[in-house]
Amino acid sequence: MGTISSLGIASGIDSNSIVSQLVALEKIPLTALQAQATVDNAQITAFGTMQSEFSALADAANAMVPATAWQAKTASSSNTAAATITADTTASPTSFSLDVDALAKGQSVASGQITTGGFVGSGTLTIQLGSWTPASGSTAATFTAGSNQPSVAVAIGATDTVATIASKINAANAGVVATAFNDGTHDRLLLSSASTGVVSGFQVTATDSNNAPITDGTGLSQLAFDPTQTADPNSGNYGMAASGNPVQYAQDAKARINGLAVTSSTNTLANNIPGVTISLLGTTTTGYGTASQANNSVSMAVTQDVTGVVKNVEAFVTAYNTLATDLSSSTAYDASTNTASLFQADGSILGLQSILRSMVGSISNGSSAYQRLSDVGIQVQTDGTLAIDTTALSAAANNGTEMQKLFTTDNNNMGTDGFALKFGDFCSGALAAGGLVATKAAALQAVLTQNSTDQADVNTKAAAVEARLKTQYAALDGQMASLNALNSYVAQQITTWNKSTS
What we know:
Blueprint: H1 15-26, H2 28-62, E1 73-77, E2 83-87, E3 94-102, E4 108-110, E5 114-115, E6 123-133, E7 142-145, E8 152-156, H3 162-171, E9 176-182, E10 186-193, E11 201-207, E12 247-248, E13 253-257, E14 260-264, E15 268-269, E16 276-280, E17 285-286, E18 294-295, E19 298-304, H4 307-330, E20 333-334, E21 339-340, H5 347-360, E22 378-380, E23 386-388, H6 390-397, H7 400-408, H8 419-431, H9 436-501
Antiparallel strand pairs: 1-19, 2-16, 3-13, 3-19, 4-10, 4-12, 5-10, 6-7, 6-8, 6-11, 9-10, 13-14, 15-16, 17-18, 20-21, 22-23
Helix pairs in contact: 1-9, 2-4, 2-8, 2-9
């Protein structure tokens, strides 16, 4: 007897249809489970957005906690061409006058004319940093070598050009910058201090290969700068100090703050007034040091900058309103369409909403002129969001210390702490493991996981039922096939018997 390859062939019954319908009955719970899974996924997505909004509110609140958030300063100068001013959070509000008598400069010197591309001479140039007291009347120039500033020796070859010598000096990092310069007919060597201030001056001496000083104004001594030496009693200074070669001595910046003299090796005054940095850009004094000296004083001021405070408060209100609006819409019920929101009547969400609303209506007990958000122009609206009275907020921001207390007082009590602390602590705690927000998120995920397990169980049970039914109907087909074969055999025998007896 052959194998039955399809259910119902032997019995004539549509077994496949019967099995399919019975299995479909077993899978009926899947419809509800899949519909619920859609809702679960939507809730997880929506609550994920709320988690981000809680985090944003925590960030906005925490941004107001540090003292530096309330200490921003604005600095102004009446003449930014002469001096600019900046102030950090440690600066105190103040105002003062500034006179700039001299800017800090480095030393700069130039050699005499040297044949273009020609050689200067061999030996050693020794560069020593220090400070110069230029010659005055019958008093000769004097040089004081800088402490902790060792001299630097630069070996010069017989075939070195001015350009080669400049490269060697720069490579030696001796505190001077060398430049090869051509004036159109001759080469010159320009030397300048790498920094400004009296102590950035330099002396250059020349020696021959035997370390003997060269002071005759020829050869390598053309590049020396030492006004304390002369080539001979009649020729005056030699080298870069020779008459006709431009020389600028290094000098400190000189200024007066409210008439009090200050100096600086740079054109930055950073240590005179705590938290204040002044950049000197030009002089304001004409005829400095003379009887006809005239001053064009610069007025400078440091004031409290409330812009950052206002922006921080506005950011806090925006973050709160975004979360509050989302919480309200997610728990609402639309009676006109009989439509419930994703979390309508959800106790956890309603609880979070209730806590936040209670917090905005609470007080901050910090011996401040302000105790409630409404005292600084932050009003609770009928829909639970916050609105800002900009006039009241600006006035409170200008009373910065009192407003700071409203937001940052720490009583170790969320009920009476400053609003930045209470909101920052609550939101951060709610988001942390075990917190209200984290727990709700975990619960939603657990529901979805269970739903997936239940769907898998239904499918597993339906598959088992299908396998059992197919086995049963296959057995039925086998029995029916046997009976059909027996029936055919008996019918044949009867037919044969009837023919033989007729």
